[in-house]
Predict the structure.
Amino acid sequence: MPDTTSDTASAPITDIAFLQGVKVVDFTQFEAGPSCTESLAWLGAEVVKIENPNRGDPGRRLKPGLPDDDPYYFHIFNANKKSITVNLKSPEGLAVVKDLIRAADVVIENFAPGAIERLGLSYDVAKEINPGIIYAQVKGFGEGSPFEKNLAFDMIAQACGGTFSVTGDPDGPPTRPGISLGDTGTGMVMAITILGALYKKQQTGEGHRLQVAMQDAMLHYMRIPFSTQGKTGKIAERGGAKVPGIGNAPMGLYPCAPGGPNDYVYIMTSRANPDHWDKLLTLIGRKDLIGDARYLTPADRVENEPAVDALIAEWTRGLTKYDAMAAVGEAGIPAGAVLDTGELQNDVSFEHRGIMQTMIHPAHRPFKMPAWPVRVDGRVSRVTASPVLGEHTDQVLSDWLGLNAAAVEALKTGGAVS
Amino acid sequence: MPDTTSDTASAPITDIAFLQGVKVVDFTQFEAGPSCTESLAWLGAEVVKIENPNRGDPGRRLKPGLPDDDPYYFHIFNANKKSITVNLKSPEGLAVVKDLIRAADVVIENFAPGAIERLGLSYDVAKEINPGIIYAQVKGFGEGSPFEKNLAFDMIAQACGGTFSVTGDPDGPPTRPGISLGDTGTGMVMAITILGALYKKQQTGEGHRLQVAMQDAMLHYMRIPFSTQGKTGKIAERGGAKVPGIGNAPMGLYPCAPGGPNDYVYIMTSRANPDHWDKLLTLIGRKDLIGDARYLTPADRVENEPAVDALIAEWTRGLTKYDAMAAVGEAGIPAGAVLDTGELQNDVSFEHRGIMQTMIHPAHRPFKMPAWPVRVDGRVSRVTASPVLGEHTDQVLSDWLGLNAAAVEALKTGGAVS
């Protein structure tokens, strides 16, 4: 699966300037915080990562001792940002950061509980420096939760937030959704809230403290299981490929040729469209079953679901997932092939549309990655390189604080920045 | 699992007014669009659903023929909004909607491809009426995608967006993540982009067309699998409860007492913290294995993962998941119990913190639901009732268009609104 340089020469890519002039002091690390600030950067904000001079964001080095040895994890969440390296343990370094906070619109952190306060950069301190600051914090668990002091990573937040409990085979154990919803899902709800606060700040200048817990954010994404529980009165269950509580068949994954691990097509007939079933029977060459009492109503088909699924699988096994998706889709019935990361990576239509772009980075080979997926006037926000550790120290100290070269040099000599 | 009325009398709930004065004309239905506009409503925007007088948002009636028979699905995605019923097929009804668009900041729709244009409310029409309009569209597939005309529901978007391919048992078939990421995950990235556009509009008055495809939005949440593929050169695989590519053990779910379907605890030792393993051995009473060559390094433990997992499971089986989570967490090792919708629904700490709130609705019994999870100055946005179909027709026509009672009555008599 080698990276291929994108064919995006003609892709509709632009520099989105919605948030031009918005300054973000970004202490975040790993994914939950960085995914939040990256979305702001893609919309035009100036996001400055405050990094430890020795290691930087720990997401930079997944193998201890080797800097930036994994370009993917770090770069994919830190595109379009700047980096300044500051020694927060030195009084001069701390003073530099306070000056940056004074110049900023937003401060954001996702350290372990209590860490930002121990650094001397609590909300009260930041508000004192800059009463209009929007101060955003991402933690694993909420204040007042029985687990408020606990660390959380994506899997912990997902386990405690319910997503494991509704994912997997009905007869099997809880399963992790394969996406890092605990991190990026949390980052998205925080980004929305920051943007709401920025909108208001533009009118009034007012600042606010924003806090989100990853466990709490998971409940937001769990609203279908909660609504199913409300309707049935039972704890929401795992459905494998199906969606428990929908009460219609056929709905689910059907195996396709040539039988690889992801050779499946999802087919979903709608209860609101009774003709879906008859159309599907026609398509699979089983017109003889139209009107058959065993399969007449959605309830009948749910009752005979194994037989219904077998009828369809017999047909899908003879087709590739792409052909099955096309045929079922053309019959007006919702269908989707299960696509894997290789197929998605190699599908040039994503590049042609700018949805996948190649990051050109000074220290790493080019690699293709998903860009911000929302188009603005037909164009997608340009992906630019994630920062090399400390790349923008001089520039930011000059632009934000008006320091001249000699002043920056003095800070460097004193060990405050690097 | 009966709904219990919340004990939120003392919960820190407030009316967040970040988006006060922002007017949204909301044509959205089901979940992808409504989850987006609901987040705007929770931050203070005035969101007006434009609904068909006969049925309204099809999400209102999951059982044909019965209005609003499922309070959960509809109400959970439409809290804090208004509803006006307009006959878009009547010239006068269409004229009313155009007048609303003239008064609005945002228009948003997630109809099937081509439908909004057939209604005579394309972007070009809206822009002609209101050059500053932010016009947002959610579709299943992007323009220029091979599937651009296809319908999509959550499962289709997730299958085609890769999330099925990375979810499930390593030896089993692709599996649906149990959360509706295809819908709400898409709604969140659109909300962020709308808010970016609103920020800019406040300075310049400019409008924009925003478009997102559910399949494209899934790639944004798939960045860990893409980065894993980049690192390994192989298609991202399913990992069951584990995260493929992390290269550390122990990490995963361990069974707890009394052995119910969700009685598991997630334990995750970090490669960056070598002492996690020794601490865990001490906790589980196996100090004798500290320094044992079979389990010395992360690589050793990955190689002997079944034995490692068995050691831990032997200990966790004797504890409830809550006790195991507490004990492992207190030892400084990340851990999380798998919580199901019943346990989350009944955990009063969510209510005390305002993260779960009870919707009091005129037509339905009270029910508890997740609120917007981000706290603002320590408070959570208040959940108010979702609208009864057409509840705000008179109010919105008066407030937005300045129509008096006689003018509204004339529109009703003519069948334009109801």
